[in-house]
TrEMBL record:
Keyword Ubl conjugation: no
Protein name: Lactose phosphotransferase system repressor
Gene Ontology terms, MF aspect: DNA binding
Gene3D superfamilies: Winged helix-like DNA-binding domain superfamily/Winged helix DNA-binding domain
Pfam family, one: DeoRC
Amino acid sequence: MDTEERRRGILDTARREGSVGVNALADLFKVARETVRRDLHVLEEHGLVRRTHGGAYPVESAGFETTLAVRTTRNVPQKSRIAAAAADLLGDAETVFVDEGFTPQLVAEALPQDRPLTVVTASLAVATSLAAVEKTSVLLLGGRVRGSTMATVDHWASRMLSEFVIDLAYVGANGISREYGLTTPDPAVAEVKAQALRSSRRRIFAGIHSKFGAVSFCRFAGVGDFEAIVTDAGLSSAEAQRYSLLGPQVIRV
């Protein structure tokens, strides 16, 4: 196995398993740990993985995206805290857009149920979780359903969104960086997110710390487009300050 084949094998393993460790990779590919570290460094430079202490995890890209089912099993306590803090920022909003993805789904479930709310969403999971809430009206955007995320996309969804004026949008992303803004792998998803932001008076990003510094294929917003960013304490206070200088309040929970 040559170097390129090994690096492709490392990337495939990371995408299949969700994360990889240096020691396990060294045993798997029968190379030195330092060789694996060099491979991971190259893969990180190419934007394909993010390194951690002792390993790495894959970055979502045009060629790879984790499914909603996988997202519901990872970092759930942190995502639950983020969702609760994001829901606390609702204020006097009466109409809310809730994005696709597991963290936005948790935000939706954390919204108050004792007051009238209208929730617009592309997510079948969000619509299902809120459909039985007595004082919440749910508007599910039409369009093609992406099987990986169970959410609607394409011009039907974007056109429907363009007819609304929404008080507050809760938005997720596959990556957020100070240089490239908020990104996602699929152009159809990016267009729905971008239209939701155009249709909303207020905008909040909710996402786990591992999203920060990651860059995917399609840019749909800048950091400064948001009034608040809600994440977990895994994002350092210094890095949070750097993001806050671009405009939004950064809340770490």
